[in-house]
Amino acid sequence: MALTIAQQIVDDITEGDLGPGTKLASEREMLERFAAGRGTLRESLRFLEMSGAIAVKAGPHGGPIVGDPGGADLARVLGLFLQLRRVPFRAIVDAREVLEPELAGLAAERITAGQAADIEDSIEGMRSFLDDERNFLAENDRFHAAVAAAAGNDLFALLIASMHTITDGVPLGMSYELPRRESVLRSHEEIYAAIRDRDAEGARWAMRKHMRRFTTRVSTDFPGAYDKQLRWRDLAP
User: Fold this and answer.
1) Contact yes or no for 195/116 (Cβ under 8 A)
2) Paired strand residues for 56
3) Phi, psi dihedral angles at 23 (to 5 degrees)
4) Which of 127, 95, 129, 98 is nearest to 192 (CA)?
5) What angle do the packed helices 38-50 and 2-15 form, to 10 degrees?
6) DSSP 8-state class, residue 18
């Protein structure tokens, strides 16, 4: 019953084209509509909240609102299945090495002016936050998500965003010292230049080099990370 209610709420959001932040029906209204107990309804809402589909605002004028689920939310869901299947960190890195160069090539062929501006803005953000590892990594995530989005496939964009959340390595104890951050920035500038110039093969090669540098760095500086099994708790704080 709880799952059926959750599915209906999602149908309401998509069929009504409700954007993030839109207020949904109150708990009282939902109880009447679904003829369900309060415990069952709250279980449905908790599930949707954990998935990022909704947020629940507290207070007398609060209640469920439409969320804006993204890569981090998908990473949390993937984390559960990856841990249960005992998938190591290596598997996610391998998947990115296959997907990201091709997406960079597609981005070079399909990118719009607005998408190019988004990628360039993420690079400017990285440059501004070179001395701030946390914000630098946030801009790093935004760069890879923006490149995937420019490839024109929403599914790939979401997958890349989720995998990048996992493979930034922070949950596994990896760190990004200043020289490493500077190297990442240079790689991103090279990738963006090829995409901007609509050089698909150049974009693929630049992204492939970027991913190989990451692979080499992990295997050299964090030799145990590749075979370490991913844990749900690291991706769902």
Assistant:
1) yes
2) 64
3) -75, 135
4) 127
5) 60
6) P
151-212-76 Cα angle (round to 5): 60
- Digitized pLDDT (tens) for each residue of the chain, 237 residues in all: 889 999 999 999 999 999 999 999 988 999 999 999 999 999 999 999 999 999 988 877 778 999 999 888 998 888 899 999 999 988 988 999 999 999 999 999 999 999 999 999 999 999 999 999 989 989 998 999 999 999 998 888 889 888 888 887 665 667 788 999 999 999 999 999 999 999 999 999 999 999 999 888 888 887 788 888 888 888 766
Alpha helices in 51-132 (DSSP H): 71-84, 89-110, 113-128
Class of domain 2-66: mainly alpha
- Tell me if 158 sits within 8 A of 72, measured CB to CB: no
Q: Domain 72-235 falls in which CATH fold?
A: Four Helix Bundle (Hemerythrin (Met), subunit A) (1.20.120)
Joined together, the tokens standing for residue 37 give 């107990």
Which pair of structure tokens corresponds to residue 211? 């991913």
First to last CA, the chain: 28
Tell me the one-letter amino acid at 9: I
Contacts of 42 (CB under 8 A, 6+ apart): 27
| Residue that is written with structure tokens 């001395």 in the block | 131
Q: How many CA atoms lie within 13 A of 105 on its CB side?
A: 11
State which amino acid sits at residue 11. D
Task: Give the Å distances, CA to CA, from 202 to 190, 192, 207.
Answer: 9, 10, 9
Boundaries of every domain in the chain: 2-66, 72-235
